[in-house]
Amino acid sequence: MTIAGVILAGGEGTRMGGLVAKPLTPLGKSTLIERIIPQMQGQVSPLLINAALHNGFERLGLPVVPDMLTGHHGPLAGLSAAAAHLERNFPRITHLLSVAGDTPFLPIDYVSRMCARSGTAVNMASSNGRAHPTAALWPMALLSQLEKYLSQPDAKLQVMAFARRTTIHMVEFQPFADLDPFFNVNTPDDLRNAQRFLPDE
Ligand SMILES: Nc1nc2c(ncn2[C@@H]2O[C@H](COP(=O)(O)OP(=O)(O)OP(=O)(O)O)[C@@H](O)[C@H]2O)c(=O)[nH]1
């Protein structure tokens, strides 16, 4: 397998209150990130978590790769750290599939559809016509050139600006019922909304 994966969990989660790292927030019988791991594990290798060390992610049994830069530079800093780790330890990896650690309803066909064609373009997920720049398949060659994009203040624009260096293929995912598969949890209200989709938990 030449496609690695990273769950981006390096944010501050300030809108959630910042008491625990947001992806470790309980949702139903599990946590946000533990709902994502099974959708990725076994299909990409290695599967990394980008997060600050000693924040509780170590117990999940996956390698935790922290940002290399101090300060908060957004998700591109996480992609950069994951790419550097792979270049050092897994030089044969050609692509990196990313996903945000706060999207607990990731589609079960996420990996297969995102990786169906892997070339020099970026494959970026979208739903309801909206692009999700943190949910994308990145050619490793592209990721080695991202430093100058790290200063862009808006995280979403930062990742989009970087992705536009090359062709972007959008991979559209359909909602199931009225649930957007890339619904992301930012606030306690979002968490309550997410719970509505898990009536048995
Ligand atoms: N490595 C890394 N990832 C980040 C950083 N900031 C945000 N992210 C990731 O980017 C994605 C989107 O993050 P947001 O929800 O916008 O930010 P957040 O920090 O998690 O939450 P807020 O502080 O409430 O905005 C998530 O996967 C975050 O983990 C950062 O400084 N470093």
Automatic annotation (TrEMBL):
Q: Which family does it belong to?
A: Belongs to the MobA family.
What function does this protein fulfil?
Answer: Transfers a GMP moiety from GTP to Mo-molybdopterin (Mo-MPT) cofactor (Moco or molybdenum cofactor) to form Mo-molybdopterin guanine dinucleotide (Mo-MGD) cofactor.
Gene3D superfamilies for the chain: Spore Coat Polysaccharide Biosynthesis Protein SpsA, Chain A (3.90.550.10)
Give the organism the record lists. Answer: Aureimonas fodinaquatilis
Protein's cellular compartments: Cytoplasm
- Domain (MobA-like NTP transferase) ranges: 5-154
Q: How does it assemble?
A: Monomer.
Query: What are the alphabetically sorted keywords of the record?
Result: Cytoplasm, GTP-binding, Magnesium, Metal-binding, Molybdenum cofactor biosynthesis, Nucleotide-binding, Nucleotidyltransferase, Transferase
Instruction: Report which reactions are catalysed by this protein.
Output: Mo-molybdopterin + GTP + H(+) = Mo-molybdopterin guanine dinucleotide + diphosphate
Q: What is its EC number?
A: 2.7.7.77
Q: A GO molecular function for this record? A: GTP binding
What's one Pfam family the UniProt record gives for this protein? NTP_transf_3
Protein name (record): Molybdenum cofactor guanylyltransferase
Q: Does the keyword Hydrolase apply?
A: no
Q: What broad class of enzyme is this?
A: transferase
Superkingdom as given in the UniProt entry: Bacteria
Listed binding positions for Mg(2+) are D102
Cofactor (UniProt): Mg(2+)
Q: Cite the CDD domains for this sequence.
A: MobA
